[in-house]
## 1
Amino acid sequence: MSHSFSMATLLKFEGRFGKHLHRLFSNIEQQPEGQVFDLKESVARYAYDVISDLAFEKDLNTQGNPEANELPPIPDHILIGTMYGMVESLLPYSIRIGNKLPIPSLQKLLQSRKLLSQKASQYVNDAIEDHKAGEKETLLDNLLEAKDPSTGAPLTPAEVSSEAFAFLVAGAHTTSATLGLLFYHLLHNRYAAEKLTEELNANVPLYNDGGKEISYSGLESKLPYTMACIKESFRITPVFTMPLPRLVTDPNGVDINGFHIPQGTAVSMISQALHHDPQFWGGDHDQYIPERWLEDAISFNEIMPFGIGHRACIGRNIASINILKVLCALWRNFEIIPVDKYEKLEINSLGVDEKKGPLLCTVRKRQM
Ligand code: HEM
């Protein structure tokens, strides 16, 4: 299935990203000058719409109706998964017991999780009805056409539904939380903001100048400073901060840093610790400095916002396309002004981290 997530496959349906990006752009363009709005909420709606479109072929358009449409409770879903996952050996029991515990907040979480998964399987059933054999134009088409490599059997509707649901849960909140934090850093680091503006002005056309659809191909290599801004945001505030356990399978165990770890042990590395190791990043590891990626030619493999190895994030290319396209479209076309330019960053950590509270801004359209 991983070929469905390759850059080449994803770029074939780049128009799907473009449709939702255009709505994000228009919503922000329509903000009257000086009107305060929450940029974090705007990008969250974009991320939810684009990921659910990719996963279920459903245009939920939460961007189109911000008043009436509540964003679905994906963070609740992640929180409950993290709580249960903390003691994974107790999983079958904790689910059974959890369902019976008379704790209103837990029951509310479980209820919202149930509603979300019911909706997801409804969307998938609709898409299965509309799917034409051989069609491979979307992620869901690819799932419906996928075959088990050993048996040649297709995925069952329940398996398709659970995969598509996993894309939504794993993809929407991670993307929006990453974008929220990226914009926070840029809006609170004047030097980085100025250099980013310079690079984008020189390389990306304004929407008005015929650049409505920013094509992803070739964009990364034209924008080294922009890429450094994104990498530095991933480094300083990775959103996926849960431990990512791996089991030692070698019968002889492994030796890591002078410690012997026997077979059967679960070993975890937490991205936050790796990304803030002062021995590697230096005493200024808690400062947002995109230059460190350029001056020291550090490889992106030194950090692990998407995990590492066989179980690393399958949606990494989708995230990369979304983040770069959103940043280019908004930063190039609007001067974004934070309401509180001295706001201290606080993080909400519910398994997937995000900026606490809104990111209140005003915008002014750039003319050149
Ligand atoms: C900035 C956005 C994202 C971040 C930071 C992120 C991060 C991660 C991380 C750290 C993991 C665990 C990897 C490991 O265990 O080593 C993961 C797994 C996963 N991600 Fe993402 N992700 C993002 C976006 C997406 C998107 C857009 C999708 C799909 C549409 C997606 C789908 C998945 C799936 C299905 C898994 C489970 C893979 C497995 O267990 O084999 N992610 N992600």
Note: Strands lie at 37-38, 246-247, 254-256, 259-261, 266-267, 334-338, 347-350, 352-355, 360-365.
## 2
Amino acid sequence: MGKRKGGKDKHYYKREKKFNRGSKVGEAYDLGKRDNELFAKFYKGQGFVPEDEWNNFYETLKTTLPVTFRITGYKSQSEELLKNIKGKFFSNLLDEKVDGEALPPPKQLPWYPNELGWQLDLSRKVVRSSEQCSKLHDFLVAETECGSISRQEAVSMIPPLVLDVQSHHKVLDMCAAPGSKTAQLIEYLHSTAPAGELPTGYVIANDTDNKRCYLMVHQVKRLQSPCCVIVNHDGTFFPKIRTNSDESNPEYQLFDRILCDVPCSGDGTMRKNFDVWNKWHPLQGANLHGLQCKILRRGCQLLAVGGRIVYSTCSLNPEEDEAVIAEMLRTSEGAMELVDVKDMLPGLKFTKGVSTWKVMTRAGEWIESASEIPAPMQTQFKHTIFPPKPEEVETFHLDRCMRILPHHQDTGGFFVAVLQKVTHLPGSKEAKSEATATQTSEDPNKAEESKKESTENQDETATEEQQANSETNNGREKRKGPASGEEPRPPKKPKKLHGYKEDPFLFMEETDPAWKPIQSFFGLTESCAVNQILFRSMQGKRSLYFVSKAVRELTRFNEDRIRFINMGVKAFSRSPSPLVPECDFRITQECLGTLLNNITKRKVYISKQDAIIVISQENPFIGKLSEESQAQLHAMTPGSCVFLFTPSEKEPSPNCEVCFCGWRGKNSVRCFGSRSERAHALMLLGEDLKEINKKVEAERKAKLLALEAQGDVDKELKEDNDSMPVDDNDEQIDFVESDKVDGVDEVNMDEVESTV
Ligand SMILES: C[S@@+](CC[C@H](N)C(=O)[O-])C[C@H]1O[C@@H](n2cnc3c(N)ncnc32)[C@H](O)[C@@H]1O
């Protein structure tokens, strides 16, 4: 009832129109200007949008996308958050009217597992700019900031889902920035690990664009995973990862899972990137096809036999989609196979991959086959962008690819294909040595030929430029090996990485004088090993980061070969205080998800009410807390601590742990947490930070007014309120001011680094 095709409610377009009109972004691209004749001709000609659906398809592309988000499933709090989204909490957020109409309730994405994917029939612009959505907006921002949800386009959630990542997998995300799919990969890595254990696998998130790598740092930091590293390489020449240090017998990591979410024309993103309407032309696909083939080929080379690689684009163009897959299948000669994964996405509407398509010139003329490319255009079109030959069609099974059309379920356009490596690629060292084993007895000449170096085993120490020079057409790489009979060349010394300016990643030694005090102050268990702790500056250890064992190994053997940009969760932050001579470091909020079970001291178990007080007030006196909390705090020396609410029979709700790092001062306590971390914890505890702030501020003002009226203003109180401690988080925190500030001089705030 009241719903249109594509699942939008009847007021969706009205709201859209209202918010597009007059806004800066909307002005330049109002609905009328979203049109492109060649685009329409090109896609009508492809034929994968049925004629009777064409208008719906084209009109849907002109509308803006709804807001979609995922609850990050590996956090213990996700079930509680889900309860809130399905229940009263969320309906309160939406208890407003836009244009006299109620805001629509959230809808679950049916194909996303465990009810963790959600859609709101509101555009991002409406959510961002309308006052009525401010509560909803605050909720989405805070929960995103602390990693409990990820705002992500619905179709973009598909590739990581069908990659089927398990906690022991070594995963490579080849074109990862800005990192929304990386975040999902990390989440799956953790969610499949045994309870209380860290994954033994890891995720390497790579992007060729150095600046875009830093976009990922923030994205990954939200998820607080010690199992992810961000690196900066050209995916077409992604270096192999060493797993030992023996230069005479180097061993390399082959990946279990690889994501190739390649650069593309992005014509499936027209609903959010409106400039694609103006910029789109028919050569874009052809221009990108070669690069896409090379990235996919390098991915397949780095994949272990039995491993899975997902290729995806946010383009609907077969030249960037099926043509790339077809070329990989062609050159792999049966080593790679397409996998049908539709059962992993129950309820998702999609069209099957196509085996025939059309190629168009810049001017909009059709070219039927490679032999018909006009002479002046020979360089514009690689022959591999044309459809496969009839005999290839039968073996390729391109119908196992999936194309998601925007009008089918109100999404962006998308393409995804899943490939499995069934045996070594032809020409690889492994394939050749297998061939040699069977051929030596049969044909000694052939066996000699196969001794030549393989493409897969190209020189691992060569720079990307050198590797580029060794490349031939069609993504097939060749490099001259020693002539048969020659002595094998000695292993080369690792070359310095050009233009790599990151501070080094330095691992702590057992003997480091900073470590023992931290270990004993927090009572760290042995599984928080010192060799998993790293710092970035020789000058001083301001922040200490924790990485998993697998990441530690990865860095150990590849320091000189890989451009590492970032890794690890910040675990300890230097924060010296005269009150705490025994330890100069405090624990950070960021590491609690990983290290809470490794900390055996300095934990304060508190009730729900106490948790609310500590989180929402600036420096509450210890005397404000319950007797149980007071007793624990009095038995504890001053310094960094962890506050922990755990559900019990007496207090069953929320049914999850809520923990936050804090400080036990002389007479008061405080919470170290960003505004969003506090808002998140309070949401779980059933409170709203803004509402609490408003209430207490009103009470405080009333009290001051009453005192002023009596001419008896407590000057000290005013001064105290003006000299609140300057914390790294202060900019973002609306503290509820307490009666008096205690502990201000206990923490050297200059040394406290951002946990935001
Ligand atoms: C479609 S975006 C990736 C989106 C990302 N997977 C996500 O979900 O957030 C493509 C990325 O490929 C990167 N890229 C382009 N050429 C590349 C190459 N040769 N090697 C690696 N990355 C490349 C671009 O910088 C861009 O960040």
Note: Residues 62 and 401 are 26 Å apart (CA to CA).
